[in-house]
Amino acid sequence: MTGLTNLKTAEGREVAFLLGPAVVLLGFAFFIPLLGLLSMSFLNPEPTIVHYQEFLSNWANWVILGRTFVLATVVTGICLVLGYPFAYLIISARPWIAALLLFAVVVPFFTSYLVRTYAWMVLLGRFGLINQLLMAVGLTERPLNLIYNQFSVFIAMIYILLPYTVMILASVMRGIPHSLLRASSSLGAPGAQTFWRIFFPLSAPGVVAAGLLVFVFALGFYITPALLGGPGDTTLPMLIDSHVNGSLNWPLAAAAATVLLVITLALYTLSNRLVGTEDLLGSQAGAAKRVAKKARSTNTYIHFIDAVTKVMRLAGRLVPRVLSALWQHLHVSRILISGTGVLVTIFLLSPILIIVPISFSSSRFLDFPPPGFSLQWYEAYFTSSSWVSATVQSIVVGIGTAFVSLTIGTAAAMALVRGSARLRRIGYQLLLAPMIVPTIVSSVALYFLFADLRLVNTSLGLVLAHSIGATPLVALIAASSLQSQDRRLEQAAASLGASRPTAIRLIVLPLIRPTLIVAGFFAFLHSFDEVVLSLFISGANTTTLPVKMWSGVREDITPTIAAVSSILIGLTVLFYLTMEIARHRKARAKKA
Questions:
Q1: pLDDT of residue 142 exceeding 80
Q2: For residues 282-302, b (16+ Cβ closer than 10 Å) or e, as one string?
Q3: 259 FRET partner, CA 20 to 30 A, in 16, 36, 282, 310?
Q4: What number of CA atoms fall less than 13 Å from residue 80's CA on the CB side?
Q5: Does residue 87 sit in helix, strand or coil?
Q6: What does pTM read for this prediction?
Q7: Residue 564: helix, strand or coil by DSSP?
Q8: What distance in Å separates the CA atoms of residue 166 and residue 86, rounded to the nearest whole number?
Q9: How far is CA 286 from CA 282, 290, 480, 483, in A?
Q10: Residue with the larger pLDDT of the pair 74 and 326
Q11: What is the pLDDT of residue 462?
Q12: What's the rounded mean pLDDT across residues 491-520?
């Protein structure tokens, strides 16, 4: 009994030791800045609520808050309407079709945030491709105002958030047992009834989780509204930035950021209680099965679907039998799903594919199709000291971020996998916090702290700032791989006299080396693409490539940015193809 107690104590110490670096990093660079932000909002310099009174008593702030909510609501609804049939098509299509559809989701997902926003600036511009097509087919005689308004903000935000929706829904749908669907069909239920009474209730938790998470992400959007919105399209994150960098009213900015933070955390808590969001964003192993199990034990969804079914039956009585039979005979529902899949694929890939030809244009403007072929914009990029310096800075910071995140994130992953169930829940919530809190909030909080510590405009400050989001990413990826490893190998090494560090170095790390390489590259990409944090933490001597692109897009849109974007798109596609080749080789090796 004593030996068992000592073993548990030793394991507890090991877990605490492994999770310690992550706690220190996130505590210093995330939680302490948030507490500082909260305290600043209540100081003047004495404790007061005057800043909240100033914020809440201004009717314009309520208008901006309402606009932010409406924007997030509309974007979330459209993402769900488009994402659900597309995710269903991915899991039900033939393997090669599913692979192409997944490619259409993954490539935009990993492409630089700024590149995707810039692509829509090109497409929606006054002389962009969409206006050219509308005039060519005779729908309009002059270019429409498609940009710098709410319409362009809606389109770009849907484009950026739709891949999140599809990936969450597809992960849940894959966990639905096919035996239930086959049993329903074997009992004579038509396809529509099987879908509404079996498939949809089991996927409903994924719909709720995806909707709430996309809504939370949309609330914190800053870059897209700032670039594509007009003067009357100010959102709450833009208002926070104006108080920090415009009026320099830091306490009021802290109060506004705290309001956004409270709303975000309340929504995340709600989604967590409803469907266990940590299962969807945290431990991926068995996440869909746990969500499906939770759905089967919840009568709310069944009651809702029963009501929907009754309404559909009532509507069906009003439809002539000939039309109903024709609907089933022509497989209209299948055609609608396939049509949605084609449209969504075009929607996801077109903006990226348009950028590449423009980067080779001989014109000095963003003309499509290009009037001629030229490499002048690539030459302008590689011969510009400012562009090259920004690229080198991003690479240096990205490598530093990858090293810090791999070291701390892998240790945290081992603590999560080896720890108790309670520690696992706490650890996942700790790691998910930076991913849930709006980046504008954490950026403002970190800026206030780093300004006092003189870490602004330093490479160290950028590495620490970027590691806030990269470390949880590495930990979650590494944890998913560690959960599938056989612990008996470690026990065998221990029985042969190997110490715990030796077993980890010689047994555990080599087994998950491919996953760590992928996780490290993800951390590098996360750092390389980080915009908002870099805008606050970087300076004249530490300008990163995204910050340079941000300045170029806002001040002077030239095809040079298209050349930089094309290079980043090429790297993204190369990364995706490398991952797919490695995955296929691993699958073949297992079969052999």
A1: yes
A2: bbbbebbebbbebbeeeeebe
A3: 282
A4: 19
A5: helix
A6: 0.81
A7: helix
A8: 7
A9: 11, 6, 10, 10
A10: 74
A11: 93
A12: 74
Report how far residue 409's alpha carbon sits from residue 386's, in angstroms, rounded to the nearest whole number.
33
Q: For 126, what's the count of Cα atoms within 13 Å in the CB-facing half-sphere?
A: 3
Residue 191's pLDDT band (cuts 50, 70, 90): low
Question: How high is the mean pLDDT of the chain?
Answer: 78
Residue reference for tokens 């396939």? 338
> Rounded distance, CA 61 to CA 256, Å?
9
138: left (phi over 0), alpha (psi -120 to 50) or beta: left
Q: Transcribe 558-573 into DSSP letters.
A: -HHHHHHHHHHHHHHH
- The residue type at 576: Y
Distance separating alpha carbons of residues 321 and 329, to the nearest angstrom = 12
Helices and strands per DSSP (H, E), number in the chain = 31, 0
- What is the CATH architecture assignment of 1-43+394-543? Orthogonal Bundle (1.10)
Which residue has better confidence, 293 or 465?
465
CA distance 325 to 575: 48
Instruction: Tell me the one-letter amino acid at 445.
Output: A
How far is 335 from 115, CA to CA, in rounded Å? 33
The per-residue pLDDT for range 455-495, each reduced to its tens digit, is 888 999 999 999 998 888 888 888 877 776 666 676 677 77
Residue partners of 143: CB distance under 8 A and separation at least 6 = 126, 127, 131, 135
Q: Are 377 and 563 in contact (CB under 8 A)?
A: yes
